[in-house]
Amino acid sequence: MWIFGYGSLVWKPGFAFQSSKIGFIKGYKRRFWHGDDFYRGDKERPARVATLVEDWDAHTWGVAYEVTDSHAEESLQYLNMREVVLGGYVTQTVEFTPKDGDQAPLLALVYIATASNPIYLGPASDKDIAAQVAVCSGKTGPNVEYVVRLAEFMRLFCPEVDDEHLFSIEAEVLNIFSDSGGIESPKQNAVLLKA
Description:
By secondary structure, the protein is an alpha+beta fold. The chain has helices at residues 69-85, 126-135, 143-157, 164-179, 186-194; strands at residues 2-5, 19-36, 47-66, 90-98, 106-112, 137-138, 141-142. The strands form two sheets. It has a five-stranded mixed beta barrel with strand order 1-3-2-4-5. A two-stranded antiparallel sheet has the order 6-7.
């Protein structure tokens, strides 16, 4: 079984896996349109986290994790609690294409939050999303960490990919923190990532 991660799963899968591959899925774009009132926000100030929105021309990059049969049930129980019960996501099966062009595409399970979810926040300008991200924090840390870690993953492992939505939100967040004397540059992001 393969599980595709495109948000926090790229740096914090939290389940046992045998191997991982960087690559992409087609037909979806990553958007910070889903609310999170547990991990990165709370009931008063829901955070903005990534989900997938259908777009036939788009590609979303992330990591696919191979889970062995012996760990499948345990991994799915963990992910269903993390992503479905607490996160409001549903599962779909998608075709994942590894970055290494010599490998054939494979089927992977992916978690997607849809507009029918009660904590779905929907579209907003990158500036408004960043303003929300900058002030939210939840059980696993600040919302800004989520954005910074995801942007760092893309720069390190998919440097040829311009994730315009993600990088624009990150830039707006950095501007907010720069104005208040906080995080000032992507170089300082690396310090946050190692914390």
